[in-house]
Design brief:
This protein is α/β, with parallel strands linked by helices and 371 residues long. 46% of the residues lie in helices and 15% in strands. The chain folds into two domains: 174 residues, Rossmann fold; 155 residues, Glucose-6-phosphate isomerase like protein, domain 1 (Rossmann fold, 3-Layer(aba) Sandwich). The protein is built from twelve helices and twelve strands. Helix 2 packs antiparallel against helix 8 and helix 9 packs parallel to helix 12. The longest helix is centred in the middle third of the chain and has 35 residues. The chain starts with 6 loop residues before the first helix and ends in an 18-residue tail after the last helix.
């Protein structure tokens, strides 16, 4: 069995098994386990409105969930910073159900948001990695992950398991609301269960490639991460991982926003990381991809330094960028689970380039219990 020099790298490699454990709690074969979802009908408001309150990486999974739940289940979703929710005025005309997301289930801002939602009479759901956490006990419904204990401060396996859990919730709601056929549900569950093997098959290659890229780009002063649609939250997460693990500045933007200001920063010392994977069976995904190709061509013309994540074998993207990281194809809303993993590895190796204790970055803690 391989030994790992840091908990973060070990936990990155544990992600396929962490996802399998989480799936086993909620899926039986190609169907959702009835008993695991028994309390969920108690939660969703009659209006079909949801507010997600979370912080840090958990908020990024919430932003991905917003796209999933709106696209596939037809629900109206807002995502709020947990630290802001309990300090904003309550508008009684709206009555969304509230999801709180937290790795520890103890994060003070998110716990305060949960209590505030309950004080306002909202139905609540907690998605945490600790089944006996304060949030899990207090919420109307708890959907715990099975990622296993996460020791490194930068979230890795808990984040991918959050994406899996939120996708499962999306399938449950889409099916229950008549927006997804039984055949489509079965097909999507089967594909979801293939994701751990797909990630496992690429991990060693990604590790070697991202180590090389970290050495190549260690002198960069800032990185701009770009993604469209459900990939934008992953751009945000990639930038956050880089900041917290390696202390290198990075920002995540929607891809189309680059030319609305940030492009002025692009230079030899400010590379661009673009998420350019595509689900070719999805017209909206193809449209986003075509627009991204045009931006890549423009960036090549301005001699920008670009790292792209693209479908395995996509030479069209590879020819337009400085470096290309390949991701095995998947459906649009499942691609984020895979594409975040090489970004985690990049942040890990950038931290090593600077001699940083990646498991314990300065000024950070695993659960923010004061704010």
């Amino acid at each position: 069995m391989r030994s790992f020099p840091h908990e973060m790298l070990r936990e990155i490699y544990e992600q396929p098994d962490a996802i399998r454990r989480t799936l086993a709690n909620y899926v039986d074969g190609a169907a959702l386990k009835a008993e695991a979802w028994a309390n969920v009908p108690l939660w969703l408001s009659a209006e079909g409105e949801i507010l997600i309150a979370a912080s840090g990486s958990s908020r990024h999974s919430g932003l991905a969930a917003e796209i999933m739940l709106e696209d596939l289940a037809g629900l109206a979703v807002d995502v709020e910073y947990a630290s802001e929710y309990s300090t904003r005025q309550w508008h009684p005309a709206r009555s969304p159900s509230v999801i709180v997301i937290s790795q520890s289930g103890e994060t003070s801002d998110t716990l305060a948001a949960l209590r505030e939602a309950q004080d306002r009479g909202k139905k609540t759901m907690a998605i945490t990695n600790m089944a006996n956490s304060s949030m899990a006990r207090l919420a109307t419904v708890s959907l715990p992950l099975a990622a296993g204990k996460e020791l490194a401060i930068p979230a890795t396996k808990s984040f991918t398991c959050q994406l899996v859990m939120l996708y499962l919730l999306t399938l449950y709601e889409a099916s229950g609301r008549g927006r997804m056929s039984d055949a489509d549900l079965t097909s999507r569950l089967e594909e979801l269960q293939s994701i751990p093997d797909r990630i496992g098959a690429q991990l060693e290659h990604w590790e070697a490639q991202m180590a090389a890229l970290a050495a190549k780009y260690r002198e960069a002063s800032t990185f701009l991460y770009l993604g469209r649609g459900v990939h934008y939250p992953i751009a945000r997460e990639g930038a956050l991982k880089l900041k917290e693990a390696s202390y290198v500045h990075a920002e995540g933007y929607p891809t189309g926003e680059l030319k609305h200001g940030p492009n002025a920063l692009v230079s030899d010392r400010v590379p661009v990381v673009i998420l350019a994977a595509v689900d070719r069976s999805c017209p909206d995904s193809r449209l986003r991809y075509d627009k991204t190709l045009q931006l890549l061509a423009d960036l090549k013309a301005q001699q920008a330094t670009v790292i792209a994540l693209a479908n395995t074998g996509d030479e069209e993207v590879a020819q337009l960028v400085s470096d290309c990281v390949f991701i095995h194809p998947a459906s649009e809303h499942l691609l984020p689970i895979s594409e975040v993993v090489p970004l985690q590895l990049f942040s890990y190796f950038m931290a090593l380039e600077y001699g940083i204790n990646v498991d314990r970055p300065r000024n950070l803690s695993k659960a923010v219990i004061e704010s």
